[in-house]
Automatic annotation (TrEMBL):
Entries under CDD domains matching the protein: HisKA, PAS
Record bears the keyword Phosphoprotein: yes
InterPro entries xref list: GAF, GAF-like_dom_sf, HATPase_C_sf, HATPase_dom, His_kinase_dom, HisK_dim/P_dom, HisK_dim/P_sf, PAS
MF terms (GO), sorted A to Z: histidine phosphotransfer kinase activity; phosphorelay sensor kinase activity
Protein name, as recorded: histidine kinase
Length: 607
C-alpha cells in the first residue's frame, strides 16, 4: 500500500481478495471532516472501475499488474468489452468475438465503427467524441446493432466510458447482448401490428376501388409487417394443374417476377401443394433443412436465393383455390402458433374478398344476360303488339261488313228466312260479335302499350252507365235462366269519368259473372256511396277462383286452368283491361272469391 496525499485527502491503493483467490484493485481514501463540532477522518472504499480509473502503462509494473488482473476479469465477463483508441480496436474480449463470429486477429486494429449498424454510426461517432472530451452532459447508454461476420444484425445495449490507454485518452465500450429482450419487444410489436393489419386489411375490402388494387395494398401491408422480400399470390387454374401469380408485392431493391410466373405447373412444388391442399400452413425457417420429400422445392428455392418462406392456402367457396407465399421473412423462426393463426385470419379475409368479388362479377354477368334477354323479350313483345295491332285493323273491316250484312239478313231485308236459316244467322251474328269484341280488346291492349289511349273525361252518371250495361247483357241472363238482383241506390253523385270505357268495364264484368255461373244461379249488382267515392260490386254464384290464383287474375293473358278455359272460352285479357280503365279513373278494383262458391268483383271510383 502506497499512500498518496492530495490536499486534505489521503489515497491508498489496495487489492481486494475474492473467495477464489483472485484480487481486484480498489481505492481507499480518507478525508478530514468536522461533524457536530467534532473532528473525524472519513474513510471511503471504492472498487476500481478500470474503464475510468485504471491507467494501462506497460512501463509501470504496478499498472501492468493491475491491467493483467483486470484483463482476466474482463475476459471472463458475461458482457462484451472493447477498448478503442484513435478509432481502432486495441482490446476485445471473447464475448464480443462470440457475439459477432469474428476471430480476434480480424478485429484487433480494425475500425470499430464498421462493426456498428450503418444507421447508428454517425450518432455513436458523436458520442465517442463527447466521451473523449469528458462531456458530462452525454448519454452513455445506447441501444444499437452489431454487424456479425455473416451480416446478421445483433441487438446490443452499449455503455460508453472514458479510460486512459498508455497515458492517452481512450474509450471503453461494454456490450450487453439484448437479443432476448429485443425479440420479446419485437414479438409484442408484431402482435400489435398484426391486430392493426387485420383491421386495415378488412377496411380495404369493405368498399374497394377494385379487387386487384385492394389485394395489392393488402400484400404490401403483409410484406411490411413481416419484413420479407416478396409476397406473391398464386391462383390455381386449368383444374388445379397450373398456377398464375396474379398479385405481387416486392420490397425495396427486390426485382418483381409476376410476369414470369404465369401458367406455372404446380408439379414443380409437389410437397408444398400437398400440404396446402390439406389446409396446412407451410412454414419453413431454413430452406436448407427441408425434408427429403421436398427435394424439388429445396433445389428450386436455393437457386432463387430464397432462405425461408411461409405459404398460406386460400379458400374460395370452401375449395382450395390458391395460396399466398411470403419469401425471406425476417426472424420467422421467432413466430409462434398464435401469430401464424392470426396470419391465417388475414388470408381468410383476402379469400372471402375474392369470393365476394367473384360472386358480384357473376351477378353482374347474370344481370347483363337477363337485361339482354329482357330486351329481346321486349322486342318480341313489341313485334307481337305491332302484329296484333295490324291484325286487329285488318280484321276489323271484314268483321264489320259481316256483321252489317248479317244484320240485314237477320232482319229479312233480302227475303224470308226459314227456321234453319234463322238459327244459322243467329250463330253467325253471335260469333261475329264475339270476334269484334276480341279485336276491340286487342286494339285496346296495343294502344295501352303504345300509350295511345285517349280518355274523354266528363261528369257522368255511373248509375245510367250501369243500367245500360245490364240492358246489353239481359238477353244472356234470360237464356241461362239466371236470377239478377239489383241494389243500386238512388240519387248518387256524378263522377268525373269516361262513360264509354266504364260501360265496357261493367259489360265485361257482368259477362264474366254470367259466363261462369251455372243455370239457375244468381248474379248481383250493388252500388252505393262510401264517403268520397262510389262502391260498385258485381257478384255471382259461379265456379269461383282458387285463393292462390286471385293475385294474378288481373294480369294480362291470365286465365283459369285449362279445363275451364276450354269450357268457357276467352283469352284472359278482360280483367286486365278492366283494371287498366279503373286505374285511369284513379280508382281501385279487386276480387274476392272462393272456389265452388262464387266471385265478387269490387270497384271504388272517386267522386
Amino acid at each position: 500500500m502506497s499512500p498518496v496525499t492530495r490536499s486534505d485527502t489521503t489515497i491508498f491503493d489496495l487489492e481486494l481478495v475474492q473467495v477464489n483467490g483472485n484480487t481486484i484493485p480498489i481505492h481507499m481514501n480518507t478525508k478530514a471532516a468536522s461533524i457536530g463540532g467534532r473532528s473525524y477522518q472519513l474513510v471511503n472504499f471504492m472498487f476500481s472501475d478500470v474503464s475510468q480509473n485504471v491507467t494501462m502503462n506497460d512501463n509501470d509494473p504496478v499498472g501492468k499488474l493491475s491491467r493483467d488482473q483486470y484483463s482476466t476479469i474482463v475476459e471472463k465477463s458475461n458482457d462484451g468489452v472493447v477498448l478503442i483508441y484513435d478509432l481502432k480496436v486495441k482490446f476485445v474480449n471473447s464475448k464480443v468475438l462470440n457475439i459477432t463470429g469474428y476471430d480476434r486477429d480480424e478485429v484487433m486494429g480494425s475500425d470499430f465503427f464498421k462493426l456498428i449498424s450503418p444507421g447508428d454510426r454517425s450518432t455513436l461517432m458523436k458520442l465517442y467524441q463527447k466521451i473523449l472530451h469528458k462531456d458530462k452532459n452525454v448519454r452513455d447508454r445506447y441501444d444499437t446493432f452489431l454487424i456479425s461476420k455473416y451480416g446478421k444484425n445483433i441487438p446490443v445495449e452499449i455503455t460508453v466510458s472514458f479510460i486512459e490507454f498508455n497515458m492517452v485518452p481512450a474509450v471503453m465500450i461494454i456490450f450487453r447482448d439484448i437479443s432476448d429482450k429485443f425479440k420479446a419487444k419485437k414479438a409484442i410489436g408484431r402482435k400489435l401490428n398484426l391486430e392493426h393489419t387485420i383491421s386495415s386489411i378488412t377496411s380495404l375490402f369493405i368498399a374497394p376501388d377494385g379487387i386487384d388494387v385492394a389485394i395489392n395494398k393488402a400484400l404490401e401491408k403483409i410484406g411490411l409487417l413481416c419484413e420479407c422480400d416478396r409476397v406473391g399470390m398464386f391462383m390455381l387454374c386449368q383444374d388445379g394443374f397450373v398456377a398464375d401469380n396474379t398479385n405481387e408485392w416486392c420490397g425495396k431493391g427486390v426485382l418483381c417476377h409476376k410476369e414470369e410466373l404465369q401458367k406455372i405447373p404446380v408439379s414443380i412444388i409437389p410437397w408444398i401443394m400437398e400440404q396446402l391442399s390439406k389446409g396446412q400452413v407451410v412454414f419453413v425457417t431454413d430452406v436448407g433443412k427441408l425434408p427429403s420429400q421436398a427435394s424439388k422445392e429445396k433445389d428450386l428455392f436455393m437457386k432463387k436465393g430464397i432462405r425461408s418462406f411461409i405459404s398460406f392456402p386460400i379458400y374460395i367457396d370452401s375449395k382450395f383455390a390458391g395460396f399466398i407465399c411470403l419469401y425471406n421473412v425476417s426472424d420467422c423462426e421467432e413466430w409462434d402458433e398464435n401469430e401464424l393463426t392470426t396470419m391465417q385470419m388475414i388470408m381468410g379475409i383476402i379469400g372471402m374478398a375474392i369470393e365476394r368479388n367473384l360472386n358480384e362479377e357473376s351477378l353482374k354477368t347474370y344481370a347483363y344476360q337477363l337485361a339482354e334477354a329482357n330486351y329481346q323479350l321486349e322486342s318480341l313483345d313489341r313485334m307481337k303488339d305491332e302484329f296484333l295491332a295490324n291484325l286487329s285493323h285488318e280484321l276489323r273491316t271484314p268483321l264489320n261488313v259481316i256483321k252489317g250484312f248479317g244484320g240485314l239478313m237477320s232482319e229479312e231485308r233480302f227475303g224470308k228466312l226459314d227456321e234453319r236459316q234463322r238459327k244459322a244467322m243467329d250463330a253467325v251474328m253471335r260469333n261475329t260479335t264475339i270476334l269484334i269484341e276480341l279485336v276491340e280488346s286487342l286494339l285496346y291492349i296495343t294502344s295501352v302499350q303504345a300509350d295511345m289511349i285517349k280518355y274523354s273525361f266528363a261528369q257522368i252518371n255511373v248509375e245510367s252507365s250501369l243500367e245500360r250495361a245490364i240492358s246489353l247483357v239481359a238477353s244472356n241472363i234470360e237464356k241461362k235462366r239466371l236470377m239478377l238482383k239489383i241494389d243500386v241506390k238512388k240519387d248518387l253523385p256524378y263522377i268525373r269519368g269516361d262513360k264509354v270505357y266504364l260501360e265496357k268495364v261493367f259489360v265485361h264484368l257482368l259477362g264474366n259473372a254470367i259466363k261462369f255461373t251455372p243455370a239457375s244461379g244468381t248474379v248481383s249488382v250493388f252500388m252505393d256511396r262510401t264517403r268520397d267515392s262510389l262502391h260498385i260490386a258485381i257478384k255471382d254464384t259461379g265456379v269461383g277462383v282458387a285463393s292462390d290464383q286471385i293475385p294474378y287474375m288481373f294480369h294480362k293473358f291470365r286465365q283459369l286452368d285449362g279445363s275451364l278455359t276450354r269450357k268457357y272460352g276467352g283469352v284472359g285479357i278482360g280483367l286486365y283491361i278492366c283494371k287498366h280503365i279503373v286505374d285511369a279513373h284513379k280508382g281501385k278494383i279487386w276480387m274476392e272469391s272462393e272456389e265452388g262458391t262464387g266471385t265478387d268483383i269490387h270497384i271504388i271510383l272517386p267522386i
